Description:
By secondary structure, chain A is an alpha+beta fold.
Amino acid sequence: MRIPVGPQHPALKEPAHFLFTVDGEVVKDVELRLGYNHRGIEKACESRSYIKCLYLIERICGICSHSHTTCFAQGVEEILGLQIPPRATYIRTIVAELERIHSHLLWVGVAGHEVGFDTLFMYTWRDREVVQDVLEDISGNRVNYAINTIGGVRRDLDRRQIDDMLAAMDVLEARTRYYQKVATTESTFVGRCQGVGVLPTDVARRLCAVGPMARASGVPYDVRRDDPYAAYADMPFDVISVDMCDILGRAVVRVLELYESYKIVRHALKNLPDGPILAKAPRKVPAGEAVAKYEAPRGEDIHYIRANGTEMPERVKVRAPTLANMPSVIESLKGGYVADIPITIASVDPCFSCTDRVVVLRDAGRGDERVMRWEDLQSYAARWHAR
Amino acid sequence: MNILIELVEVLVFPGLAFLVVYALFCEWVDRRAYARLQNRWGPPWFQPFADLIKLAAKEDVVPAGADRAFFTVLPIFDVAAVACAFLYIPVFGARAVFSFSGDIIVVAYLLSLPTLILFLAGWYSNNAFSVLGSMRTVTQLLAYEVPLLLAILGPAMLAGSWSVSDAAVFMRTHPALLPLNVIGFLVSLIALQGKLERVPFDIPEAETEIVAGTFTEYSGRRLALFRLATDMEMVVGAALIANLFLGGTAPVGPVPGFILFLAETLFVVLLLSWIRATCARIRIEQMVAFCWRYLVPAALVQVLIFVVVKGWWLA
């Protein structure tokens, strides 16, 4: 029997299509189709100035918006040869970790919801409001903080904000201890996550898994440590890695990473250097190219930028972490139960709108591509609606 | 005149009308308690009524591939089966509206009918999610039905009668035996949670996995009837547990006994909400393993306790 999951399905908050071949309750094969939400952001960037690009790039993802802007800004700054002030790197780091905290808390709730544990969902999302309030306080927005600009950050932190943030970290740490207890001892939750969605270490390496997905499979790769950016070189933190290889491992990695984030935020706030927050950047970027890497909450985010000496980039390419994890999730779904499909897909913390790209369908028999021009699309739509 | 009284008893109180109103009230209690346990406010008291009316007014779609006759008849059968079962359970006064020796079997049968109806409803929907849901429904039935029957059997065995009313009368006149019945109470509570397909046993309608399982293709009036039947089933199950394990209407006169009955059923409903709020949904094979490995032996221990009690204490 073939079960479609998506593009519209209660377990998926974004459109993607998985076609499962099942034998009773066991998954035999999976086919994935992306491309339902392609927005053409990369192309749109080519006709906008770098500053405008930053705002567009911020909207790639609703949850890791800061990740994408930081990654893009770092790439542009590299082409410009611009050194940004230390205070700005610290503020970028603080916002990045706050974003990671809210993203991981969100994931714990979603994981609970996927296995029918709605109480956990309600609790984590309530406590996530603490960090959302902090973000709103320092940036004016709950998501899409717009704190980055080319050459630094747009808003400074004052004494009261720093004190409020330190207090919020204490609240969140206490709550995280409770979630750690629930996620590792509640027998129904552990029963649903242990030994499910297994991704062995060698497979994780071979399929280039990133982020918590890789770290839960015993691949201790973290851009923050292995290729430090912003102020991470000064930050004391450990790369959390476990070799459980299952969904419980991914939950444990994310919960333990929360503690590291609290540690980083506290350290950065207490050692915040004085000085300016912005280095002046020219409007025109000289010809050159750069690849920027960034450890987003979901894993390694890569931006490629090619400049041609004008105000607008010639090419921008985004590789969001979810795309890197898709081969791994397909692998970990095979051989599992139908009941475990949602939690296994959710265990990579997928963000399909970040990931989506145009899918070109090839004719299976002849293997040739079909090119559709704008006029073709219009007439196709007219014909489809006239049916 | 007698027929008139019987008609009122069947259709109004303590029959159908009371059951519907009380079922919707219990749904509210359940939703409110669930919400408070999750640190939310939950809906106002009239929300289940409003939901029912709204759903009944919605467009009712029968999919092209579904069997129209079955699609229409099954929700009505569901409500009817549950409403019939309620008539054999004491609510007001010492005895139920109808009772005869052997009505425990009838109640057990009428309470397993909804499960089979859900299976048929899913099967005839002609939808992959519905079919998966209906297969899970039946698999689950095989898991919880045996412990539930064994647990109900205990009080009946003590009373030496196959009648719910007789067993209830016996338990309420021997309150000293109630503490001995704790295992049976817990087993039947958990099995009832499975019967009602609620977390952690909401496997057949697991929203994130198979959309709505059996109910995927249902909408409008038919879905409203199914939801109403599930609420009614919760009340009937709670009433059965209250009568057999908590003392039921107690020999204190009809009206105080009735109030006591309401308190006991609400207590059972609250326990069910509490289970729902503190668990994740388990997998179907975990559910079957749990029922046969823990619930059935526990129910057997309960039966053994009663055999000993009946042999030495009551002899």
